[in-house]
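tl;dr need the bound structure. longer version: we got a ligand (iron/sulfur cluster) that a collaborator sent over and nobodys looked at where it sits. i said id run it. heres the input, straight from their email, havent touched it
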Amino acid sequence: MSDDGNLTAKQRLKIPPVPMPEQPADVRRANIREVPLGYTPDQAVAEAERCLMCKKPVCIQGCPVEVDIPHFIRLVRERRFHEAALVVKQTNVLPAVCGRVCPQEDQCQQVCTVTKSHKDIHRSVKIGNLERFVADWDLEHHPDIEVPDVRKTGRRVAIVGSGPAGLTAAGDLARMGHDVTVFEALHRPGGVLVYGIPEFRLPKAIVDREVDNLRRLGVRIVCNVAIGKSRTLEDLFREGYEAVFVGTGAGLPIFKKIPGENLLGVYSANEYLTRANLMDAYNFPHASDTPIIRGHNVVTFGGGNVAMDAARTALRLGAETSTILYRRSEKEMPARLDEIAHAKEEGVVLRMLQDAIEILGDEDGWVTGVRCLRMALGEPDASGRRRPVPIEGSEFVIPADVVVVAIGNGPNPLVPKTSPEIRTNKWGNIVADPRTGKTSMRGVWAGGDIVLGAATVILAMGEGRKAARSIDEYLRTGVWEESPAAEAAPAPA
Amino acid sequence: MAAILTNDNIAPAVFRMVVVAPEVARSRRAGQFVIVRPGPGGERIPLTIADADPERGTITLIYQVVGKTTAVMSLMDPGAEIADVAGPLGQPTHVERFGRVACVGGGIGIAPLYPIAQAMKAAGNDVTAVLGARTRDLLILEPEMRAVVDRVVVVTDDGSYGAKGFVTDALRGLIDSGERPDLVVAIGPTIMMKMVSLLTKEAGVRTLVSLNTIMVDGTGMCGGCRVTVGGQVKFVCVDGPEFDGHQVDFDEMMKRLRTYRRQEAESYEAFRTRHRCRLMERNAEARG
Ligand SMILES: Cc1cc2nc3c(=O)[nH]c(=O)nc-3n(C[C@H](O)[C@H](O)[C@H](O)COP(=O)(O)OP(=O)(O)OC[C@H]3O[C@@H](n4cnc5c(N)ncnc54)[C@H](O)[C@@H]3O)c2cc1C
Ligand code: SF4
Ligand code: FES
């Protein structure tokens, strides 16, 4: 039925979604390999049949970078996978990453006509799964990217930070012929994609491949350099860079500021995940020298992707129980639906409407438990979500030997601190023109989490792309006009 | 990649390594450190920059073999490469003309103290170095210190060299002598910094300590290096490494330093069993 195209909308609406094959929960909780295994070509084609090819494809508007979704899905239906991948790549430079980590249920899949017809987000066209399929298919069958034969401009651009924002800006600028150097503070490029998001959700090999592609485009990647420390932005200009893009992310861990947070066995999610992912502590003491405390009872605070990643990492490190403590209800959890579902299947216990007020420890300083309070939902707060209010006298203690604090990250202060000419808002985010990414300092652009607050991969990518366009224009025209819109930068989420 | 030029044993289990790191050599200032990852699968550890030669583009690291990572480093030959050297990181020491400065160093802490003493002297201070070690063999950088400061007082726990006693004894002598320092900079084992700070707090002498906590990234991203200073949580890698010794919660810090003691011992033991002969040959065995 794949090629006849004669199904009616009604018939298509009756096709059930094609589930993505996965490692069984009891198997995968003991390994770090990727959980979803990807569609086969037949599965992808079957899923593609569910798309209605809407005249007004609302899904495109739901996508932050406006991937031409029905177009690529039609090509999947016709088994023209490479062409499908090219359509996606026109606007999304990291489709293998985004297919895996985008919050599709808040974007394209939320507004998809099929979702609306069924009034059920779980029945949407699985756009993310299809995006992942075409990206993986293409990586396998067309691993060598085309290096465009552009005229080199000889203009030097520095990119600070190698997360999705920086990588995207670097790729676009290189394709425009500019001479691009990426500076990364850590020893491995990729930002959150390599230090934060675990292997079981985003294999590092995918990120490495994207980075290799950039190198093939002629981008220089210099690791172990923290801009603001060994050199400042001003130094970069002195060295001959004409434009700088700052994509340093939201890497400053926020703690709850409750008693006991400095006990042994209490981690920020950043530290816990960095040890496990970037430093490979899963393999301590054999292939890795970086230790991590393998708790029996691990308790994670928070309700976002970061909390899910930490709680599921704990299971893979051998925890008997892994519990998430969240102040609001499951409905308010910002994590992707898939991650919540996966966490539950693997046995992560979600304790909703409960909040930690103290971490308890023994004489030697080791964590022994968490004192909690039950919460009720009150009036909506500034974010529009109902504010959790403590229930008097509802205190209780749960045992814990590892606690992971995953309640958010603030902007990385290193660059703004050493280049005071760059304006920041009261949270410390760099203020940038939402149209161009220009900051208050001439020749400096910023984008991604450092501007938006902890946001998403796709938004960071979009920001890198936007800035690249503006940088290119600046390099060609030399015009840096005042950007009044910089005043109106969005507040962090 | 950073090429190793020399890697010399300078005291039992203590090594001086000179590596090529031109950018660090050019921009580092006293008090700053680097994060080193010796090779694939290696751990990231902070090491203070003991010296630098901007012309040659080299930095000097002095480290004591205390676990697997430093043991691995001790076996690296000149010509080999360190996979990653990131830095300089941390805030440089605030150097100005304070008047009389006492630089108190214990054990391996004398290494990070050396560039600070040098900078303090260059800023016009009268500098006394109080150097302590368990025993004579373990005293490092004494001649180098003598060359840059006004006077050196040596103490050893066992009295094998200099006066017998602890650095606090010598420091108390200095404070009582009428040549009271205006500033004390103390670097060494945490317990030593704690004792020095207790003493100087009582005596009302301003004191800086340089903290050597566990670190991962060294850029303020993980919070693993956090300490409590004056009731506030600080990240040593970006807010420090130097802090007002009178404000630091040393007891909490000492506990946190023990977090991975068991894991570290396990991985160090496994490495030692495999490389015992070479470690012995290199004089890299910490104790006996
Ligand atoms: C655990 C976790 C899970 C997540 N899951 C998802 C998800 O499922 N879906 C999703 O869309 N988003 C997710 N996010 C959010 C997403 O990863 C971020 O929004 C995105 O990575 C931001 O990209 P960025 O390029 O702005 O910055 P980052 O990815 O943070 O990269 C910034 C880079 O800059 C480097 N850097 C910082 N300062 C300097 C300096 N001074 N000099 C040189 N380099 C510097 C840092 O080391 C880092 O490598 C998750 C985040 C975390 C932490
Ligand atoms: S809204 Fe849904 S059904 Fe319509 S084109 Fe987009 S993916 Fe297809
Ligand atoms: S070492 Fe990670 S924040 Fe200091």
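gonna send this back to them w/ a short note. The mean pLDDT of chain A is 92.
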